[in-house]
Amino acid sequence: MSTIETTAGTSIETMPFSKALNAGLRKAMEDDPRVILMGEDIGALGGVFRVTEHLQRDFGPQRVLDTPLAESGIVGTAIGLAMGGFRPVIEIQFDGFVFPAFDQITTQLAKITARHQGAVSMPVVIRIPYGGHIGAVEHHQESPETYFAHTPGLRVVSPSTPNDAYWMIQEAIASNDPVVFLEPKSRYWPKGEVDLAAPALPLHASRIVRRGSDVTLVGHGAMVSTLLQAAALAEAEGTSCEVVDLRSLSPVDYGPILDSVRSTGRMVYAQEAPGFVSLGSEIAATVMERAFYALEAPVLRVSGYDTPFPPAKLEGVYLPDPDRILEAVDRSLAY
Amino acid sequence: MRPWGSSQDPRHRLCAPSTAKRETSVSVDKVTDADIPVVRVLDADGSYAPNAAAEEYLPLIEALPDGEIEQFYRDMVAIRAIDTQATNLQRQGQLALWPPSRGQEAAQVGSARAARPQDTIFPSYREHVVTRIRGVDPVDIIKLMRGTSNGGWDPTDPRNGNTRIYTLVLGSQTLHATGLAMGLVFDGRCGTGDPDRDEAVMVYYGDGASSQGDVHEAMVFAASYRTPEVFFLQNNHWAISVPVSTQSRVPLVQRGIGYGIPSVRVDGNDVLASYAVTRRALDEARSGDGPRAIEAVTYRMGAHTTSDDPTKYRGSDEEQEWARRDPIARLRAHLEHRGAAGSVFADAEAEAAEAAEDLRVRTLELTSPGPEVIFDHVYTDPHPLMAEQKAWQAQYEASFAAEGQEGHR
Fold first, then answer.
1. What pLDDT was estimated at residue A1?
2. What residues in A contact B381, CB-CB < 8 Å?
3. Distance CA B353, CA A132 (A)
4. Do A329 and A238 touch, CB atoms closer than 8 A?
5. Are the beta carbons of B220 and A68 separated by less than 8 Å?
6. Residues A229 and A112 in one domain
7. A113: which chain B residues are within 8 Å (Cβ-Cβ)?
8. A76–B214 CB contact, under 8 Å
9. pLDDT classification of A294: cutoffs 50, 70, 90
10. Which residues of B touch A83 (CB under 8 A)?
11. Structural domain count of chain A
12. Which of A335, B112, B197, B293 could bridge A297 with an S-S bond, Cβ 3.0-4.6 Å?
């Protein structure tokens, strides 16, 4: 694959996020013959984002299923396949198309293990390309993570780098619980280093990705790169921002977040999703409960507005950008 | 190229209106109940009178030994007694809810007795005798209705005969059944030609559930992947208060044809006919010939559940009409015609009374589970929030004991 550049003599390869996912899926399928992929257009086409490219060619149509165009059917039959010992990995084509499957995900997939008091596990991964920044039409730029993070029985994760994409997809597939795997679609193309030798972190760990001392910035998925841009701009103005990549949205690993907040005394949470009753709301509340005496300012949130995702020409107004994050940083520092 | 199952043969044995003509468009008004053959071998009075549609099934019925038909009767009588007992238990405040199966015994017994041990059964939530025939303890159903469990039994325990648990969201289980059956295709566990080894899946749903999108999607997937699967629809005429005519303008058996699934309509109050059509459909599915659909026409003689009041939406004349077609009375008359000994009926009644009493005793013994049931199995793998909240709840409860107080419950 010409897009993968190997550094001679090491286990490090440089590749785009989408290729890292593809390599991770391939590895998982090689490691476990019960892993099967299901979705719309994921076979010959390789998926609309080519994440599953060549996998049907190499593993056959019984392990890479071009399913009928029916999301509830995909998730519902994946549940039956999991009852039969398979480990299905589903691709939902776009964020806004997951909702026909919402019933099967929330009333069935999420609850089946509890309903059976542990006698039946549901090792199903639901991959969902999500988020804005790609100028697409309605239903193609949304961030639906809150619905799933709110649902007991599901795990929800979102990698932000090619290395995390490669390892987290394998860890999600190895999980014996259902995992909603949110892929920030604007990050599919940028390249990054992938260490093929060993994962850096477990699936549900958050991670400090930039050190700083004045304000803690927290987010997930594509927002991590926006936070890093904001931190670089802040540094030029003399403000030192620490950046935490949440990685796991449910459960949340509060350790690195609280460590950081106890050191900076200030926190800004940023997300593309609407803010009302969101992941940012939950994390802000928890940080205030657990680090109250360390805080110099209230935890502030920067979100998409509480509106439907707007027409794409307005997404720059809707989505948090470095300037909106820095505006919140300034407000935090003003306390 | 179709990598799964046998080649796709368009010459499916479809159930079509007997008056069908080759036309460029189909007028739904021309397809009425009267146009659709119903497989029936027992008349309402119990006389053995196979109709034309039943001809091809007669060898299966005539091969049934007397003892097997008497077993059908015992199954039906026992579940009616259990069902009545459970309804009473609900009325006495011992259960939150009970969905009575009264009137649907023949459809359920005939179909369940047609399945082989290696088959997997997906019930809806009214298939009390289906689960009992497969080995599930009826008290396990009571656990759902008494609020001591959300599942009731372990479908992976061999004693439960590959019977999945009840599903309360209508139609959801049809997709699970189809997925499991897809796995049988991928694993080569059907269509080998060995009937003792080949497996099939049977899924139960009703006329109300037939309107759910999941049933549509299940039939699309089943037809596409040629699953070894039987869709067993019990048309009991009422989805709580809404009649089947609101669910469908055409006989429900017609739906299967649209998906390319060979479909048959059977008199669901005729246990012999229900047995035979299901036996045939399961054999064909198991052999790798793809899915089959059955519409069993029956009647919910009782309420939808104990929360329901049928007097608000249907007349007693209708109920009396169906009471004359009671499936148990019909089979009893047939057995009497065949010269069954009187002890067959007396023994069945005694067995049923004993089962119902046993249900009552063991229901009253069911106690609340411990709070660990809330936390322990939400996830299979360890989960920090579950551990944290379980520990908090335990110390919260313990704090009352530490203060020398009664627990707050």
1. 41
2. 175-177
3. 65
4. no
5. yes
6. no
7. 377-380
8. yes
9. very high
10. 164, 176, 179-180
11. 2
12. A335
Q: Quick: pLDDT tens for B330-389.
A: 999 999 999 999 999 999 999 999 999 999 999 999 999 999 999 999 999 999 999 999
CA of B179 to nearest chain A CA: how many angstroms apart?
4
Is beta strand B120-122 parallel, antiparallel or unpaired with respect to B201-206? parallel
Tokens of A170: 């394998």
Per-residue DSSP letter, B302: S
Residues 85-124 of A with CB under 8 A from B: 85-86, 100, 103-104, 107-108, 111, 113-123
* Domain at A329, CATH number: 3.40.50.920
Q: Are residues A41 and A181 in the same domain?
A: yes
- Cα gap B112→B108, rounded to integer Å: 6
Cβ–Cβ contact A248 with B under 8 A: no
Longest CA–CA separation in chain B, Å: 84
Catalytic residue among A54, A116, A140, A150: A140
Q: Do B175 and A153 touch (CB under 8 A)?
A: no
pTM: 0.94
Whose tokens are 């046998």? That residue is B6
Question: Could you confirm whether A133 is annotated as catalytic?
Answer: no
Q: Which DSSP letter does residue A247 get?
A: -
Are A80 and B155 a contacting pair at CB < 8 A?
Answer: no
Domain that holds residue A123: 5-195
Q: Are residues A115 and A257 in the same domain?
A: no
Structure confidence by residue, pLDDT tens digits, B284-336: 999 999 999 999 999 999 999 888 899 999 989 999 999 999 999 999 999 99
How confident is the model over B216-260, as pLDDT tens digits?
A: 999 999 999 999 999 999 999 999 999 999 999 999 999 999 999
**Which overall architecture, per CATH, does domain B32-365 show?**
3-Layer(aba) Sandwich (3.40)
With a CB cutoff of 8 Å and minimum separation 6, the contacts of A200 are A163, A167, A207
Within this chain, do residues A72 and A102 fall inside the same structural domain, yes or no? yes
Nearest to B376 by CA among A150, A203, A115: A115
pLDDT in tens, A132-158: 999 999 999 999 999 999 999 999 999
Asked, for residue A60, whether it belongs to a domain, the answer is: yes
